[in-house]
Every structure is written in structure tokens, then in C-alpha cells.
Amino acid sequence: MTDAISSILSQIRAHETRARGDVGPGNAIDTALGNAQLGRVDNGTKAPGFGELLSGAIDKVSQTQAHSGAMQTAFELGDPRADLARTMVAMQQSSVAFRATVEVRNRLVQSYQDVMNMPV
Fold first, then answer.
1. Where is 33: in which H helix or E strand?
2. What angle do CA 110, 49, 68 make, to 5 degrees?
3. How far apart are CA 105 and CA 85, in angstroms?
4. How far from 6 is each of 10, 14, 76, 116, CA to CA, in Å?
5. DSSP letter at 47?
6. DSSP, residue by residue, 54-111
7. Please, what is the average pLDDT of the chain?
8. Engineering a disulfide at 4: which of 21, 57, 61, 72 sits with its beta carbon 3.0 to 4.6 angstroms away?
9. 1: closest CA among 97, 101, 99?
10. Rg of the chain on CA atoms, in Å
11. What is the DSSP-derived secondary structure letter of residue 45?
12. Torsional class of 86: left (φ above 0), alpha (ψ -120 to 50), beta (otherwise)
């Protein structure tokens, strides 16, 4: 759950950094960015596309929300395995994951609008 969101957010930050020109040769990030641009992973296999990554991240957010809902229901029904601390942590993880997903969506929409408003 958080790995996929962290991955997407780090990719956004890396693209912003590259767009500003802050990434220079010899930087440790260059190798990873170069492989990502070429669509390769270090072991030579083809990296998943952006759509696949986004779909996987959304699926994980959905799973996190479902788990949080199940924990809430179990806690309300008095299940001894669902203590308050775990339930609250699950709810917070779900909330953070959803907010990150909304932020990614907002940035994608803004990027699309920027591209569509470019003069030809």
C-alpha cells in the first residue's frame, strides 16, 4: 500500500527535480532514472508502465480502505483481535493513502490541462 504510493510520489518528485535541472551527472538518482526512462529494471526485465503502476496503487488503496472498514466493523462488534490502536492505525493508513491518491489525480489532471493548453 504505502510502497506503491511512495513510489509514485518519489517519481513525481524526481520528474520535478529533473524538470528544474537539479539532477546532474554522477548523481545516484541518475542510474535509476535512466533505467526508468528506458523501461528497464536492474535485472533486465521490462518495467511496468505508468498505467499499470497507477492501477496497482489504486487497487492497494482500495484494499487498504476495505481492511480499515473491516477493522472498524470488527472493533464495533467487540472482536478481541481488533483493538483500538490497530483500528486507528488502519484508519489513518487508509486516510493517508486516499489523500495521496487524490493528490496524484490532481497533479495528473493539472498536467493534462497544461499539455492541452500548450500552443501548437
1. helix 28-38
2. 75
3. 30
4. 6, 12, 31, 28
5. P
6. HHHHHHHHHHHHHHHHHHHHHHHTT-TTS-HHHHHHHHHHHHHHHHHHHHHHHHHHHH
7. 79
8. 57
9. 97
10. 19
11. P
12. alpha
Q: Positive or negative, the Cα torsion across 45, 51, 57, 62?
A: negative
Rounded to whole angstroms, the Cα distance separating 71 from 66 reads 9
Query: 7-28 burial by CB neighbour count: b if 16+ within 10 A, else e?
Result: ebeebeeeeeeeeeeeeeeeee
Give the number of other Cβ atoms within 10 Å of residue 97's Cβ.
23
Backbone angles phi, psi at 80, to 5 degrees: -65, -20
Q: How far is CA 18 from the centre of its chain?
A: 19
Q: What is the pTM of this model?
A: 0.57
pLDDT in tens, 95-110: 999 999 999 999 999 9
Q: Which residues pair with 46 in a beta bridge?
A: 40
Q: Which three cell numbers stand for residue 28?
A: 545516484
